[in-house]
Design brief:
elongated; Alpha-Beta Plaits; alpha/beta; Rossmann fold; 10 helices; four-stranded antiparallel β-sheet; binds adenosine-5'-diphosphate; 14 strands
Length: 308
């Protein structure tokens, strides 16, 4: 049974803005899943619906077979949520934040204490257990939100931009812990606009843009696709047969246009050498970018801007 099934999810905000335009999504149990997209794509709206913070205007959500509308309590107990904003009492000591959360799920106080210690140690916060929330750094607050989200041992953990604004070192240690959780069986969905984060952690990626899912794929094949570039070549002569250009993948588009894939290891010079040795003259050359690649390049640029 999938961890999450969303069908035709729609959200139109009160001002008439259509933030989600019919999202279909299946996340299998045990997956580590990225929702990758630029700012404003609709990622937080989607997470908001899954976690009952935002009312959907259409569609349905099931978490491990439980319908969000009909069985909200079951859904709640199966989900752990790490929102983008810090939404807890700033004057509460760290350990109490986690214990209180356990209380909402009916976990007895003695057990809640044990669990709080377990997760705070895991997230390197045990030493700070008596500090008030407001005295923690941004990275610590974020780790505290993860500890809090885990205290009722959810089967599906959803994190909205978990490492936004977190410095590189802490980001790496958070990644290590999230991997460990996933290996131990927790299904994880996170939103990010860092390509590197999705690449490093996630097995599956959905690309979301302007309220629509543009693609769902496994990370490996997505990256394989990014390793090659396709060039469109207009040729002087008409092509009768498909030319053989050693090592290059070629497709004939019409009788004077071909597309050639060049991998990272190959060079354009090598392509031109191969073309001239076949007496093929090129009039013009352009880089073919499909929407997906474009989206990615844009996002990679944004990611660089943020990290810098
Ligand atoms: P992301 O998390 O991918 O950055 P969001 O889900 O936050 O995207 O936002 C998607 C779009 O919906 C944005 O254009 C945003 O301005 C709009 N939006 C978000 N919240 C509201 C709201 N409460 N009212 C109106 N528009 C909103």
């Amino acid at each position: 049974m999938p961890a999450l099934v969303a069908r035709q999810l729609r959200k139109t905000y009160r001002n008439g803005y259509e933030a989600l335009k019919g999202i279909d999504l299946i996340v299998e149990e045990g997956d580590f899943f990225a929702l990758l997209g630029p700012n404003g794509a609709g990622k937080s709206t989607l997470i908001g619906i899954l976690t009952s913070l935002v009312n959907k205007t259409g569609g349905s959500v099931e978490v491990f077979g439980h319908d969000l509308d009909r069985e909200p309590e079951q859904v709640k107990s199966l989900l752990g949520v790490v929102p983008q904003e810090f939404n807890f009492n700033l004057f509460l000591p760290v350990v109490e934040v986690v214990i209180n959360q356990a209380g909402y799920f009916g976990i007895p106080r003695v057990e809640a204490r044990e669990r709080a210690e377990f997760f705070l140690r895991k997230l390197d916060l045990w030493e700070r257990r008596k500090s008030e929330m407001r005295l923690l750094s941004g990275g610590m607050k974020r780790r505290l939100m993860i500890a809090r989200a885990l205290v009722h041992r959810p089967r599906l953990l959803i994190l909205d931009e978990p490492t936004a604004g977190v410095d590189i070192e802490i980001r790496r240690s958070m990644w290590t812990y999230l991997r460990e959780l996933n290996t131990a069986g927790t299904t994880i969905i996170l939103t990010t606009h860092y390509l590197e984060e999705a690449e490093s952690l996630c097995r599956s990626i959905a690309i979301i843009d302007q309220g629509r899912i543009e693609a769902v794929t496994d990370t490996a094949s997505l990256l394989a696709g990014l390793d090659t570039e396709t060039f469109v070549l207009n040729l002087k002569q008409r092509i009768v047969d498909l030319p053989v250009l050693g090592g290059f993948v070629i497709e004939v588009i019409d009788d004077s246009t071909i597309e050639v894939q060049i991998s990272r290891e190959q060079s354009i010079n090598a392509l031109f050498d191969a073309l001239s040795s076949n007496n093929i003259e090129v009039i013009s050359l352009r880089n073919k970018q499909n929407r997906l690649e474009k989206l990615f390049l844009d996002m990679v640029d944004q990611g660089r801007g943020k990290v810098a």
